[in-house]
Amino acid sequence: MRRTVLLTFLLACLVVQSKAQLKPARIFGDHMVLQRNQPIPVWGTTEKNARVDVHFNGQHVNVRADVQGNWKVVLNPMKEGGPYNMIIESGRETVSFTDVMMGEVWVCSGQSNMEFTLNNALGFKNEQKVARRQAVRQFHVPDRISLVPESDFAGGEWVQADTNTVGSFTAVGYFFAKKVAQELNVTVGLINSSWGGTMAECWISKESQLTDANLAPRVQHMPSTWDGLKHQVDSTIKFFSFPNMPVTYYKPEELATQPASFFERWQKGSIGAWEWQGKWASYRGEGFMEHTTRLDNSASAKTSVLHLGQTDADMLLYINGNPIKPDVVNGNFQVSLPAGTWKAGDNALLLDLQSLQKNPSWFGLGIDGDWTNVYLQFPDTLITLADNNWRLMPDMSKPYHFDYSPNNTVATLYNGMIAPIINYPIAGVLWYQGEANTTKAYQYRTTFPLLITDWRQKWGKDFPFLFVQLSSWGTMPNSNQGSDWAELREAQTMALSVPKTGMVITTDVGDVNNIHPRDKADVGFRLANEALNTVYGLLNENRSPLFKSVDFKEGYALVTLTHTDDGLMAKDPYGYIKGFELAGADKKFYFAKAEIVGNQVKVWCDQVKQPVSVHYAWTNAAVEANLFNKQGYPVGPFRSDDWKGITEGKASP
Predict the structure, then answer these.
(1) What is the share, in percent, of the chain residues with pLDDT greater than 70?
(2) DSSP H or E stretch at residue 183
(3) Residue 340, Cβ neighbours under 10 Å: how many?
(4) Dihedral, 293, 296, 298, 304 alpha carbons, nearest 10
(5) In the prediction, which pLDDT does 77 show?
(6) Rounded to an integer, what distance in angstroms lies between the CA atom of residue 342 and that of residue 338?
(7) Structure pTM?
(8) HSE-up (13 A, CA, CB side) for residue 490
């Protein structure tokens, strides 16, 4: 009998639960942080035309839902404080949220360096020990791409920083919030809405992109259904891979015998995941990679070792038509080759990639490595294969499918990860993105300001927008070779012309070998100091010097920078300043010497008698640039000319 009564009771509870109609938006919950000193909208859904009452911190407001069941109330502004309880009632239903704080709310967005979690950052163990004492909380927005703006998230919850939870916080956001919370004595809430490897265009609404001449064409041709998108992506990949020729089914043993000239019709690429190259984003299948290496007469008599990074995909390998059995040593792909493997002249290296990378599985198709572990080693020399001279071709004869990613769609991250919170009041935005836009850095001059303007219009408020300039990573091309990373940094600097923006320089805390540098404390603290300066009125000198002007004299350039009131210094034991280049009217750059003269910098070199342009830190990995102000903040990369760069004219596909 007791069992029957219990079963009946449980069934009744399930029926009541199934009929529950009152659902506040997912951004509201236990431990949430609400923005102080601003009106607070609270919204959600319930039964159509039902009355909804909201009680919070002495306020009681009510509203009647519309015919679709949507409702929204607005609470009056409140100062910092808490913890409070929020009670929402509709009919017989009640939803309660506990431990609610009034404080500062910042949206943290961008790609992987904002997504980068604290448990992977330097200093994590120390932060674990003190996390419980920090007034920092986070709401992590679930990854979601959507073809239309969503009204709510599928999941997510507010989490307090403590020993067991802080490791999953955005590292940059955490260090920012830690300092701001300590300086202002308020609770700081982070809304972490970020996705690694994504372009800025993913985060801009469709309506705003339609106003931009560069972005509008792609938006106009964006399918409205997933089936339509699948067809479009398939057609795009085939057209890109086989331009002006029919789709061809290749056999590896036949490709292995082809001369280098045969592969010139294939698209150029590089090592790394295909996901970020050309138009292969979302392609999941097999593929070929070919590299032609020219060697001298001595190569045929030498043994060698071929290194292909940490690639663990199933593959066939051919050198000059001969099959080679690969090997894995200490987690790295390498194969020892006898004398006679290579020949004088052009040598063809062909990879038949028969699977995606296994570890990490997200890597997809391609060679998992960089310039430190992808090379051909002879006893007396080393030849890098980490260049842009690979040729790539998907194997369309084998089964393939698409895993849709934000980069082969338009506005889908705005739709799925920003639109649901545009009514939630915030203090501002922290943005760390740009790596995925470097190939079209010149276009970023308009794309990035469009994003800032778009979000402000959606929120209906000109909130502060603080961002991180690209750090240092990869190679070190000089100004004659050009640098897309330097051009992207320039575009970011130009965005400072948009009101209420701020930027922090991070070239000194990058990692040449890792696009995800682990020093996130300096980045977060610099953002915090920028916020204390520009947002909260706590003025300090913790800002990077930026280019202001240059006077060209007979034989040298005299550079004036901002934020140098206390002077400049070179971080070098002998006082040498590195990172400057000069050019004359011929536009040919030479590395230059420099010295500090008062609060200015004198730059000269013997090869340029009459300079007309000066560059500083104009390269991808600007780790050798060593000019700082006395507060220890690095001088931002710059150029004084407006000569055409290597990304001008490159636009969104």
Answers:
(1) 96
(2) helix 171-184
(3) 12
(4) -20
(5) 98
(6) 9
(7) 0.89
(8) 27
